[in-house]
UniProtKB/TrEMBL annotation:
Synthesizes nicotianamine, a polyamine which serves as a sensor for the physiological iron status within the plant, and/or might be involved in the transport of iron. The keyword Acetylation does not apply. It comes from Rhodamnia argentea. It comes from the Eukaryota. This is Nicotianamine synthase.
Length: 320
């Protein structure tokens, strides 16, 4: 059976045609309905599909669909950021965002993963790349989990940072611990060494080649031993977000890959910047770190009491 005859792929193609024919992706009943249907279609966690190996026509559709999803997500966040800014204390009303619960669960997941690999100490400085107009990940992590950490949020869009700043400015705590930088992360070099942990948003680099260039840039300038946490997608959820494989993380030691099986859409990859001692001779980015053993464990992720697939990776250096 060809990939276009797969019932899930057929349904995604049908929804893509409808979404791509919309005059605008601004939040409204039609837009919300179509994207809700798309997300529900792609959510089955164990559907046997590798979206990166589908036929060329479907791959082109998927690439376009991810861009449409990114545009719609940005417009939705911008819309709710403006609404929240009308409150005296916007942070107290984050629950009005329809996917706020998902961010709570994703942030709890990321914090738990980070705690397992960061020697139990709270990072001093964290960067979030691709924070957007509604920086919920940074806000939730700073408010609920990393309560002493300073967050540096990077976004290329000045209007996104302006909206985000309006949300945290009235908060006496977050306003002191959150900074917003309007710049392309590819133009940031030495400053990247100042962060203990860098989070890379799912929609920074929507094409695979762009994503890899960003990862290589981070590998070049991050401090040795610092942590990279990035969001990916697994299975049919790869129609919604770019897929990052462990082998794409050149210059990093991949520690674990988590694939949630509940309503949290994004997978989470945690990796450590390789020490200069491990770099290949003549390579500024270091070796490709490949999994020596990969076991998928279906389990209940205790902090959230939701299912996940956990890939614990034992890493060995690829022989040169």
């Amino acid at each position: 059976m060809g990939c276009q005859q797969d019932p899930l792929v057929q349904r995604v193609c049908e929804l893509y045609e409808k979404i791509s024919s919309l005059e605008s992706l601004e939040p409204c009943n039609d837009v919300n309905m179509l994207f809700t249907q798309l997300v529900l279609t792609c959510m089955p966690p164990n559907y046997p599909i590798d979206v990166t190996k589908l036929c060329r026509k479907v791959q082109e559709m998927r690439s376009n669909l991810i861009k449409l999803c990114g545009e719609a997500e940005g417009l939705l966040e911008s819309h709710y950021s403006s609404i929240l800014a009308s409150y005296d204390n916007p942070i107290d009303h984050l629950h009005i965002f329809p996917y706020f619960t998902n961010y709570l669960k994703l942030s709890q997941l990321e914090f738990t993963i980070l705690s397992q690999h960061h020697l139990g100490r709270e990072p001093s400085r964290v960067a979030f790349v691709g924070s957007g107009p509604l920086p919920l990940s940074s806000v939730v992590l700073a408010s609920n989990h990393l309560t002493k950490t300073h967050f540096h949020n990077y976004d290329i869009d000045p209007s996104a940072n302006s909206k985000a700043l309006q949300l945290v400015s009235p908060d006496p705590d977050l306003s002191k611990r959150m900074v917003f930088h309007t710049t392309d992360i590819m133009d940031v070099t030495c400053a990247l060494r100042d962060y203990d942990v860098i989070f890379l948003a799912a929609l920074v680099g929507m094409e695979k080649e762009q994503k890899i260039r960003v990862i290589e840039h981070l590998a070049k300038y991050m401090a040795n031993g610092s942590i990279l946490m990035l969001r990916s997608a697994h299975g049919a959820r790869g129609f919604l977000y770019p897929v990052v494989e462990a082998s794409d993380l050149r210059g990093f030691q991949v520690l674990s890959v988590f694939h949630p099986t509940d309503e949290v859409v994004n997978s989470v990859i945690i990796a450590r910047k390789c020490s200069a001692l491990n770099h290949e001779k003549g390579s500024p980015l270091g070796p490709i770190m490949m999994p020596n053993k990969c076991c998928e464990i279906h389990q209940v992720f205790n902090p959230l009491n939701h299912g996940s697939i956990v890939e614990e990776l034992t890493i060995e250096e690829k022989s040169s």
